[in-house]
């Protein structure tokens, strides 16, 4: 089956309904054998050094992927560099399909965007809704995995992160994904409860660090909430068949106020003591930290990551000091 890459979460039901394989290019980059080389490759191709590592990693990921010749690029509601990325990739022969999450008149304009994407892939909304029903069965499992993290204290913060972030494309095969997460849940249910008392939330884009969750747990705290990763699961829209409503409920691409309302609600439900706000170097979302720190009402540690790899020594010290302060 043909693979379709995409730059951030899109209505994946459309791609599956077309009989194709969706591929989240962020996951291709970060799980590459050497993500650092992907960044070097992009810089050698002319990408400025002060461009977000994810954009550079996605570029190289697509160039190095022999079986992806078409991508869906989210040009409104996500990274402001994506439009230029699509133009560069088109020079390399990659077909680009722009998709937008409109900032105003959301439902009306989003409906047009979804309709246009359906027309490109020659599917209709009824076919997409049937896929949505199947994906919702998996999203219910993801929601339960989330509960195993914050309510039953058995799943780790990393497991919570990994499986929720992977739901952007269900690893390309939702049938296999469903079986794998069922097996994982069986193992997690058999564990003893984690008695760690200090409960942290993680907000912002998924981390480029590979060992953040392990380090936090090593220092005696637990991450029991992953904001954007949870949004990728569309768990708040389980049972809703209208794709426009589903992707209107998706907070990540819209206003910061919508995200803050969701974050505050989850902090209360999950009894979270403090929050780690992750920002990516050179991303406009770093500016939002000013508002987030003022509005959240719980201690907040802001981390800024740049390149993939383990948490650097300076950031480790800051995390350790933050956790000690909370104790």
Structure description:
This protein has 327 residues and is α/β, with parallel strands linked by helices. 51% of the residues lie in helices and 14% in strands. It contains 15 helices and 8 strands. The protein has helices at residues 12-17, 25-30, 35-44, 53-64, 82-91, 106-121, 125-150, 157-165, 174-189, 212-218, 227-232, 243-249, 256-269, 289-295, 313-326; strands at residues 3-6, 21-24, 70-76, 95-100, 198-204, 221-226, 274-280, 300-305. Strands 2-1-3-4 form a 4-stranded parallel β-sheet. Helix 7 (125-150) runs antiparallel to helix 8 (157-165). The longest helix is centred in the middle third of the chain and has 26 residues, at 125-150. The protein starts with a strand and ends with a helix.
Task: Give the overall shape.
Answer: globular
Q: Report the total helices.
A: 15
User: How would a crystallographer describe the biggest sheet?
Assistant: 4 strands, parallel
Spatial order of the strands forming the largest sheet: 2-1-3-4
């Amino acid at each position: 089956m043909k693979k379709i890459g995409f730059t951030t979460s899109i209505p994946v039901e459309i791609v599956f309904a077309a009989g194709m394989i969706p591929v989240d290019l962020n996951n291709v980059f970060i799980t590459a054998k050497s993500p650092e080389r992907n960044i070097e490759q992009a810089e050698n191709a002319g990408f400025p050094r002060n461009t977000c590592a994810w954009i550079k990693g996605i570029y190289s990921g697509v160039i190095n992927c022999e079986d992806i010749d078409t991508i869906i690029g989210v040009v409104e509601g996500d990274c402001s560099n994506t439009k230029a990325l699509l133009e560069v990739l088109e020079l390399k022969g990659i077909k680009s399909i722009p998709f937008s999450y409109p900032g105003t008149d959301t439902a009306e304009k989003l409906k047009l965007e979804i309709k246009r994407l359906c027309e490109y892939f020659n599917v209709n909304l009824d076919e997409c809704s049937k896929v949505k029903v199947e994906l919702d069965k998996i999203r219910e499992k993801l929601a339960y995995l989330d509960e195993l993290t914050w309510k039953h204290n058995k799943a780790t913060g990393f497991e919570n992160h990994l499986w929720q972030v992977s739901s952007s494309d269900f690893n390309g095969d939702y049938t296999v994904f469903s079986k794998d997460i069922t097996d994982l849940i069986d193992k997690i249910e058999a564990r003893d409860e984690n008695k760690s008392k200090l409960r942290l939330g993680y907000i912002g884009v998924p981390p480029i660090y590979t060992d953040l969750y392990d380090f936090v747990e090593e220092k005696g705290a637990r991450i029991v909430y992953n904001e954007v990763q949870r949004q990728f699961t569309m768990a708040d829209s389980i049972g809703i068949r209208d794709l426009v409503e589903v992707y209107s409920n998706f907070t990540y691409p819209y206003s910061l106020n919508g995200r803050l309302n969701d974050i505050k609600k989850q902090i209360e439900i999950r009894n979270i003591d403090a929050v780690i706000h992750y920002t990516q170097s050179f991303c406009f979302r770093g500016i939002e930290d000013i508002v987030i720190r003022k509005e959240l009402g719980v201690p907040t540690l802001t981390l800024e990551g740049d390149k993939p790899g383990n948490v650097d020594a300076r950031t480790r010290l800051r995390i350790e000091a933050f956790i000690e302060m909370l104790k």
